[in-house]
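Project outcomes to date are best conveyed with an example. Our students and postdoctoral researchers have been running inverse folding experiments weekly, and each run begins with a structure described purely in tokens. The record below, which covers 313 residues, was selected by the lab manager from last quarter's runs and is presented without edits.
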């Protein structure tokens, strides 16, 4: 009598199954009490180029769980690994700040988060690759917080430097009709006079005009037009390094001048009529004015005229 033993069925997705049926010729039918067993061994490269396993069903005659040379293999299956799939595409994210025009947001602004697949594999989510977007709206503006405590007072600043002047006669090469060379500088050595070592020195050369024709009395002018006549200390000489104005013979006022009380952009200039403030930390405010008949000029502070003088052409 012939008995045919069929192998159990094993199904695995992506695997190749090779099935072998082994026939055993037997004598008269007898009931065998011998146990069956399964072994698993790696497949050879000839069986599975991509790797796999060989499952063997055999009669374990000595019940030791091992397939030995004298034991009969009833059925054998070779299960091969599938081929390697292609590399998948990455998922990318991008965020864009939208400042205005978001109708979905009460605040009209927020953060737009885009998602998509990196189809060209450049690790950048491009507009054509976006498959979905989500907007996160900005919240309402919070209440203004309370003011913080006042900071500690800063250290007292160092005393500034006074301005000093020096006037010398111009050379004939500088002024053919004579004149003055006036130097203005910071009194960095605090000796109340100009020294060549003083910082930020600026020089202006004031030339006299040509002598006019003699008047009916035949006398010449006593002083050239730009000859310094007297210093003026606005609001009085109240501090050690008081700013000073220099009044000239023709009635003009020569002074250092800056655009602000911090003393920046200081330059030597003639002061026109107007209101001014010292930068020597005295907060002195003064006014220079010319009379309607253009004959006199004056300086005022403290609500009254402090000094006036005649103007010459």
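After processing, the design step wrote out the following sequence:
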């Amino acid at each position: 009598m012939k008995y045919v033993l069929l192998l159990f069925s094993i199904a695995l997705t992506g695997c190749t199954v090779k099935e072998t049926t082994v026939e055993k010729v037997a004598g008269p039918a007898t009931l065998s009490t011998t146990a069956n067993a399964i072994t698993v061994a790696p497949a050879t490269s000839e069986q599975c180029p991509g790797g796999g396993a060989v499952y063997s069903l055999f009669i374990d005659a000595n019940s030791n769980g091992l397939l030995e040379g004298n034991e009969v293999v009833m059925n054998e299956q070779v299960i091969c690994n599938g081929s390697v799939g292609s590399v998948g595409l990455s998922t990318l994210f991008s965020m864009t700040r939208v400042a205005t025009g978001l109708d979905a947001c009460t605040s009209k602004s927020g953060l737009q988060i885009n998602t998509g697949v990196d189809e060209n594999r450049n690790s950048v989510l491009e507009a054509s690759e976006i498959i979905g977007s989500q907007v996160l709206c900005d919240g309402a503006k919070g209440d203004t917080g309370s003011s913080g405590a006042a900071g500690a007072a800063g250290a007292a600043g160092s005393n500034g430097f006074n301005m000093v002047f020096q006037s010398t006669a111009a050379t004939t090469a500088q002024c053919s009709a004579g004149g003055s060379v006036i130097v203005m500088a910071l009194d960095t050595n605090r000796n109340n006079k100009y020294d060549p070592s003083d910082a930020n020195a600026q020089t202006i050369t004031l030339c006299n005009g040509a002598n006019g024709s003699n008047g009916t009395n035949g006398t010449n002018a006593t002083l050239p037009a730009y000859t310094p006549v007297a210093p003026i200390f606005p609001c009085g000489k109240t501090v050690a390094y008081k700013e000073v104005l220099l009044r000239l013979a023709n009635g003009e006022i020569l002074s250092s001048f800056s655009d602000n009380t911090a003393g920046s952009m200081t330059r030597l200039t003639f002061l026109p009529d107007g209101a001014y403030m010292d930068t020597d930390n005295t907060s002195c405010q003064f006014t220079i004015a010319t009379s309607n008949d253009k004959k006199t000029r004056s300086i005022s502070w403290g609500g009254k005229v402090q000094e006036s003088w005649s103007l010459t052409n």
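DSSP finds no helices and 20 strands in the chain. Residues 1-33 have pLDDT under 50 and may be disordered. The training component of this project remains on track.
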